[in-house]
Amino acid sequence: MAGKSGSLHVVMFPWLAFGHFIPFLDLSKFIAQRGHKVSFISTPKNVDRLPKIPLEFASSITYVKIPLPRVDGLPENVEATVDLGGLDVAVLKKAYDGLEPELTRFLESSAPDWIIYDFAPYWLPPIAAKLNISKSWFSIYSAFSMAFLAPPFEVLIAGTDPRTKVEDFTVPPKWIPFESKVAFKLHESRWMLESRNLDGSGVSDLYRLGSVVKGADVILMRYCREFEGQWLKLVEDLHPRPFIPVGLMPPPVEKNSLENNESWTAIKDWLDGQGKGSVVYVALGSEVSLNQLQLSELALGLELSGVPFFWALRNPSGLPGGFEDRVKGRGIVWKNWAPQLNILSHDSVGGFLTHCGWGSSIEGLMFGHPLIMLPFVIDTGLIARVLEENQVGIEIPRNDVDGSYTSDSVANSVRLVMVENEGKVFKDKAKEIGAIFGDQDLHNSYLQKSVDYLEKNRNESR
Ligand SMILES: *[C@@H]1O[C@H](CO)[C@@H](O)[C@H](O)[C@H]1NC(C)=O
Ligand SMILES: *[C@@H]1O[C@H](CO)[C@@H](O)[C@H](O)[C@H]1NC(C)=O
Fold it and tell me: Distance between terminal CA atoms of the chain?
């Protein structure tokens, strides 16, 4: 633990999405464990929905609420992407940009040693620089996603990209010097093209990315060298910034956690009654909302597979008529809060049908589960390509152009991974790679080194 005089004050400033809050919070806990103070900044409604700060960190991590400025087109109750319900995310970005004056005042008055920010606040690095605050972009994106999404440094910071058509994103870019399958399908590519254009927030996502990379003294990245390490070397070659992998941050598994929580007890009772490794856990994360056809083909596919399933589905409206009755006993549609980590750690679970968010993929693989992959948003298609290349599972076959899939393709994929003999390779590979993903000591040592870096490289001229 650092001495009092040596301890740091670190400000965390994540983007307004739960998939970002949680890794920022996990990193905060680790920094706090080392004897440092953390101010975690978000808006009031988000702070109220975040996990309570555990008692052991009560004096070291502080949530700081900065009200989200109102902007045209942003409804009163929207403070995170999960609240958008189909609204354009650009309006939320615009409101987030409006946090600038209040955040600046906070930085001026509290004079922290470091600010660790997300991909969005393109305006922040110059402010921190003026205040002599050291600054880091924390990339919750993997090195292979970064290598694909961002052109080489000079091109990136100019806010440009040589890729100008959707088709350009369906092949690996020319700055990837080795053989790779990292590219989008046509149906996944449109957002990439859009992210190159100005949106309703007045800047493009590409410009945001360029600015946060350019302005970073160091880039912390949720990644490690033991899995697809060549990509880390590549992003370092492409961008003249120190990249420090913080490890994969597999969440700690607390045995007997939630012991008296009725939701978990009910889930556990059901899982206890299933055969070892027989259940496929189905969860597509909080940001994916399926349309009617996607939802019903997925449901019918699970039904057709004959495989026991536990489906965490917050909004079940649009399930095929009579579905839940027909699968009764074999399949559960769980409409409430579901503790993903507890479920994945249960012996009866033997596979994970996932949208391939980097966090979810890590959580599934740390328990050695083979994956049945159904990616939709942002970089999840790229993650699925890399994981499929590593044979830890398969992607559900889709139509390349519109991304549609059929109940048959769902059922066949689930059966292949869960029950067919040919699926053994995925189980074996998932165990092998899962041993890396779940290696707490390995990933802890990355976190240690990252905090060492923050301690040694603070700006002394404040
Ligand atoms: C179980 O725990 C979760 C998370 O802390 C909480 O949201 C939920 O309300 C609890 N459920 C019950 C029935 O206690
Ligand atoms: C930042 O550092 C410079 C150079 O050491 C110094 O002149 C300046 O006063 C500092 N500014 C603040 C706000 O601390």
Answer: 23
